[in-house]
Amino acid sequence: MNELLGRIGDRWTLRVVVTLHAQPLRFNQLRRAVDGISQQMLTRTLKTLERDGMLTRTVHPSVPPQVEYGLTPLGHSLADRGMQLGGWISDHLAEIDDHRARYDMADATQGH
To answer: In terms of pTM, does the model score above 0.85?
Structure first.
């Protein structure tokens, strides 16, 4: 369980899953949509998600072959939770920023 929580909470997994929520995407489309992810990290993340049963990899017969990644029902359920978490963050970001600023001011005045 800890391994899975760590993976879901890593820098890229939820971002990839939420990006695929609306529709399946090809590798380069996904790479452009997930700002900052390297080709190697995207490949690793996709393989892990496929292994966990959260996404499908469909190879379309063309030259060159086109590969499309889409979410399974399990992946969609994770994307739904990820979007809920993103909504919570959006709803509370200003409040959290305010708390951080007050904490940092108090910390600076106390000499920590």
So the answer is: no
